[in-house]
Amino acid sequence: MIKNLKGSFQNFYRYRFLLQNLIQRDIKVKYRRSTLGILWSVLNPLLMMFVLTMVFSYFFRFDIENYPVYILSGQLIFNYFTESTSMAMESVIGYAPLIKKVYVPKYIFPLEKTCFSFVNLCFSCIALVVVMLVTGAPFHPTMILALYPMATLFVFSLGVGLFLASSSIFFRDIIHLWSVFTTALMYASAVFYPKSLLDGSIMQFLINLNPVYWYIDAFRQVVLNGQMFTFNHILVCALCAVVAMVVGVKVFRKGQDSFILYI
Amino acid sequence: MDDKKIMVSIDNVGIRFNLAKERVDSLKEYFLKFTKGALHFEEFWALDGVSLDIEKGDFYGLVGINGSGKSTLLKAVAGVFKPTRGKITVNGTIAPLIELGAGFDMDLTARENIFLNGAVLGFSKEHMLAKFDEIVDFSELHDFLDVPLKNYSSGMVARIAFAIATATKPDILIADEILAVGDYAFQEKCEKRMQELLDAGTTVIFVSHSIEQVKRMCNKATWIEKGKVIMTGDAETVCDAYSAKY
Ligand SMILES: Nc1ncnc2c1ncn2[C@@H]1O[C@H](COP(=O)(O)OP(=O)(O)OP(=O)(O)O)[C@@H](O)[C@H]1O
Ligand SMILES: [Mg+2]
Fold first, then answer.
1. Which residue in chain B has the smallest CA separation from A259?
2. Residue of minimum CA distance from atom 18 in ligand 1
3. Phi and psi dihedrals of A124, rounded to 5?
4. Nearest neighbour of B96 by CB, restricted to A15, A18, A102
5. How many domains does the structure of chain A reveal?
6. How many beta-carbon pairs under 8 angstroms link A with B?
7. Do the domain assignments include residue B1?
8. Domains in chain B, number
């Protein structure tokens, strides 16, 4: 077991340049053809926030202080989760030509997509800071703690991504189901409405079962409210990350040797 | 006295593929088949009970007609396939040249691809920087370094792939029909490089459809047909038997 783990780390150390190379390539390819290039990674969340804010403050009148910042922070965390898990899910299939020709540890591909998506998240955080400056939102010293939900969410998404990558190879339907599922999940994550809206309904109970909601809430707690995490924030974020990772790694390891027969 | 170290030991290896037409890709198909009790796969053994030992310093040839399982065997040695049955033990580092252009991104330039391909093979950036000039010299493509690989001819891609894989002395070099696409001068150059590596202690596993080439370069050979070993021995004997049949 210990020897096994040591072997895995040596293996990972050897392939760290591949990881780095693939992330760089993804970034390069994503922005190569556009005039504004990498600026888009900041502009995109800004424009999305603009649209959502317009739409939602027109139709609903939520009692939320600094709605643009509220919506952007929720959207950024939620988008990271959807983007990274969807990309990780299709990564092994996407790299099929490579996997069929040379030996490469397979977990590199979901890991790479989760990292690449995290780079995008960091760019989106720049957009958030811009919006906070423009709207005159206060900068709380607790902001730095936002790294905690971000880091645990990274682990959580990686676990989910590994699980999806493995199971979608054997059942391609999962790819379609997952996009429907994440759309539904967005409405249960309090991205654009206040949680108090749900008071007294069954949804109030359900939303607590949604891990992504907890990451969003923890993030807002320190960035928007300028308060310390509650004990539940700390616990749920860590617990979901660990559980997802353990399940993801188990499922992925079990399937990885037969991937090549199905891609 | 037997002081030769066994570099690759292939012990009763079988590899099974599920044939594509029987692939159950979606839940619906799965349920349909499951309820009908028809959930079985058509099996196909691409390799069956193959045993070989390859010793240090061997230039080992594999011969056989199309589809006999040579590439499958090489991929199993390189770790791409995991044997369904049996065991493969490899002692040392492998440079795989099985399918050319593995780990190349056709949209990137040759320069970028050298680093990407190096990373795929598990080499560090520093290592690739140190070997960069040597790789470019060997492939003789100085003028095309910043051209996207999609604009290369297949022989040019082969040159780069060969140069990268052999820039570092591997313990085991796997070469699957790589000489077929190069022009005559480049084939000569590759043969020379392989001979140099061999002299420096590398073990080579070599597949070619040119029997004459196998005879000239290899010391030992195995003839495979329909996934089974027909004959193993010194290259001359095996090649003569093989060409007598075809
Ligand atoms: N991924 C795969 N899935 C299913 N069948 C496969 C797969 N790869 C190879 N095969 C089958 O295994 C058999 C052996 O193929 P292989 O590529 O090893 O032949 P080969 O000896 O290298 O032939 P060639 O001389 O044409 O290169 C073939 O019948 C092929 O159809
Ligand atoms: Mg072949």
1. B81
2. B69
3. -65, -30
4. A102
5. 1
6. 63
7. no
8. 1
**A7 lies in which domain range?**
2-262
Residues of chain A predicted below pLDDT 70: 1-5
ipTM exceeding the 0.90 mark:
no
Instruction: Write the residue in A22, A173, A260 that is nearest to B80 by C-beta.
Output: A260
Tell me the per-residue pLDDT of A72-121, one tens digit each, with 9 for 90 and over.
Answer: 999 999 999 999 999 999 999 999 988 988 889 999 999 999 999 999 99
Residue nearest to atom 31 of ligand 1 (CA): B67
Cα Dmax for chain B: 62
Mutate to test the pocket of ligand 1, among A101, A169, A261 (most ligand atoms within 8 A of CB): A261
CB contacts, 8 Å: B157 with chain A: none
What are residue B206's DSSP bridge partners?
B61, B175
> Residues of B with CB below 8 A from A100's CB?
80, 99
Instruction: Name the residue among B105, B112, B190, B185 with its Cα closest to residue B145.
Output: B112
* DSSP per-residue codes, B136-182: HHHHT-GGGTTSBGGGS-HHHHHHHHHHHHHHS--SEEEEESGGGSS
For B14-54, write each residue's pLDDT tens digit: 998 876 555 556 667 666 666 655 555 567 899 999 999 99
